[in-house]
Amino acid sequence: MFVELKDLVLPNQTVAVAISGGSDSVALLHYIHNARKIYGFNVIAINVEHGIRGESSISDSNFVKKLCEKWNVKLFSYQVDSVKKAKREKLSLEQAARTLRYECFYDALNRGLCDKIATAHHLRDNAESVLFNLFRGTGISGITGIAQNYENRIIRPFLNVSKEEIQKYVIENQLEFVTDQTNFDDDYTRNYIRLNILPQIEKIFPEFEKSIARFSLIAKTENDYMNEQAYSAVCKENEIVQISLPLHPALLARASVIAMKEVGIKKDWEKTHVDAILTLADAKNGAQTTLKNGVVAIKEYNKIVFTLSQKASNEQIPFGIGNFELGNAKVGVSLINRPQNLKDELFGDLEKIPQTAVIRFKRDGDVFTKFGGGTKSLGDYLTDKKIPLRLRNFIPLIANGNEILVIFGVSISEKIKVGENSTKIIKFTKEGV
Q: pLDDT, tens digit, for every residue of 202-216?
């Protein structure tokens, strides 16, 4: 049996072999320990006692300890309570044990005990994983199989090696190992697949493991491509995440998951959330759906925007000369000399603004006389200017009653425009939302 390790572990790195004491992990530790001088890396071992089988489990960990002492391999041991975690978080015992096991692996990596964790997953494990996910109704990502090199931190050197090859290696090298009796308990979902389904498949398709490996590799290639396309459609700027449209539903679904994670929904999102986002693609401008954690998705012309739901303040500030803060926006009103060009920025005639004017946000019933003439509702005017609905309630305004005189950062009303006889010219500036 030959396994190429040069692309998995670099010289002078330390690889920690996850060893349970079973034949597969013992074979892996033996193989990697013997190969360390050839490739120039260091080897340690990690054992996790899952707290499931009582004295039997502890006995297996003691076996691992003695084996590592015999082979002069430094061992780091962990003890976890999978039963307690399964009950507390309503997980299957399999899920709880796997989660805790990988928490131990990442603890070792993050503490700098090693550079890589090597697990003994092999060709049949990959087939089992693909079928398990398929039966659960997974998407394409679930049938891509087990990664041989995950995040360049978790490696599976035996992934393309058959169980029979590993067993032959164990016999040839006279390796001692222990047997976990739960491996033969088909009450566990994966064990049922391994013990009852795979042998029946093998009778009809002797090469099924290799066939599934080829299938999962094709699925991974196509899945990676679709992910690249989905990521390219997602853009994040400050706290706002958006998806560019149009986008094929298959890519939009992926982009929606990416966007939700980017805006803070790291987990617990559901298919119903994705379906709601897909519906927005064909909805009218301004349509929105509420997701989780206060996040809303809004259809804005040729994009879907993800942002935290916000409510505008009802506060108002008496109009005057100076700098003001309203919500997250900062606005300025300053007296200036007559500029040569009145088109580049927003200017107005101070004497045309009533003393009763205030600085505030949008309210129902607001109207605006656009520059050049013509009065319409403020909402309709902002629609004409293609101002997104989510921003309209947060644009600072100068208002006198329901008459809007200035939309900071957008336009001024015809009613306060600078004329030839204007002597007190003011400039309007805005920062922030």
A: 999 999 999 999 999
